[in-house]
Specification:
single chain; about 325 residues; mainly alpha; 3 domains
Length: about 325
């Protein structure tokens, strides 16, 4: 019995040591690298990599990817008519909380116009056009992330574009899942409260849980972009990274901040007239692209600092293969 307990204690100690070792090399253990140093290096890299210029490029592609996507979405919703109406209404409500009001008006107008003339052919054509247009935006993300990692694109054109198309599809699936969680959470909570008369506490809890779940799914989508888009190799897949988490938080902050600014200082319509809504939409795309690239920059700086400390599996900026594979 004493020997058995001693073995259990030994195994527990070994497990604790392994857990400490994993945490010591975890990308989330920022203290080992120095949070101040990470922030300083990130700011320097952002300036060197011209992230503001890259974000403007992404905004251009995001803008031209939006409306083909709306055509495809509205075609699908138009075909399911009544059953899709409640879902589309909730979708519009959630988009209204993210997209600035002035820009949302033009998005909603386009969405309504295309929804009324939907057919099976438009679903196919709309999806194909949306996929190709969106993959062009993903290709721009590939170029931007290569710039962040200080590497040159070596993949053949067909391979890079195929990866962009596949990444676009998976991104669409993940963000659709996140939206479904947000939309479905409210619907499920309302349905259960109507059927089994759930207490108010459980209804509120169900609605509250949808947001962290949707946030986690979105973080995985960001991590997927950072993993697949640049022409570099990674030692292992990480479901949620510091850069992905910070990127999403920044995106939510800039979206909210832009809405607050436009609420109190709505000068776009005065300066740009009828083009004000388009300018607001482009500004939102620009800030969204900047948030995505800043998240990638943070991940790159963390990995570069880890590699300079001799951590196996990490790579310095400008390297395509982790150190463990270079050795």
């Amino acid at each position: 019995m004493v020997v058995h307990r001693a073995e259990e204690a030994s195994l527990g100690k070994i497990a604790m040591e392994k857990a400490r070792s994993r945490w010591a090399q975890s990308s989330w253990n920022l203290q080992r690298l120095g949070i101040k140093l990470i922030a300083q290096r990130t700011w320097e890299s952002m300036t060197k990599d011209d992230l503001t210029g890259r974000s403007a490029q992404l905004a251009y592609y995001f803008f031209f990817s939006l409306f083909p996507g709306l055509v495809a979405a509205s075609a699908v919703l138009g075909m399911v008519a009544t059953s899709g109406r409640a879902f589309s209404d909730r979708l519009i409500d959630y988009l209204a909380t993210v997209i600035p009001p002035a820009a949302f008006d033009i998005v909603l107008s386009t969405f309504n116009q295309t929804t009324h003339a939907s057919s099976g052919g438009k679903v196919v054509v709309g999806l194909l056009v949306a996929l190709w247009s969106a993959s062009a935006g993903t290709s721009a993300i590939q170029d931007a992330l290569n710039s962040v990692h200080k590497v040159k694109e070596r993949r053949p054109f067909w391979k890079a574009r195929l990866e962009a198309v596949l990444l676009t599809i998976f991104m669409a699936i993940l963000f659709t899942m996140a939206l479904t969680v947000l939309l479905g959470g409210d619907i499920v909570a309302g349905y259960l409260s109507h059927i089994v008369n759930l207490p108010l506490f459980f209804r509120v809890l169900t609605r509250m849980l949808t947001w962290p779940i949707a946030f986690a799914i979105s973080a995985v989508a960001f991590a997927l972009v950072y993993y697949v888009a640049p022409d570099v190799e990674h030692a292992e897949w990480r479901w949620i990274t510091p850069g992905a988490t910070i990127g999403i938080v920044l995106w939510l902050l800039v979206s909210t901040g832009l809405r607050i600014y436009l609420h109190f200082f709505n000068s776009y319509s005065v300066t740009y007239g009828s083009l004000g809504a388009v300018i607001v939409l482009l500004t939102w795309f620009y800030l969204s692209g900047l948030a995505v690239l800043m998240g990638a920059e943070i991940n790159m700086v963390i990995e570069d600092l880890a590699a300079r400390q001799g951590e196996r599996g990490a790579k310095k900026e400008g390297e395509k293969v982790p150190q463990s594979e270079n050795a």
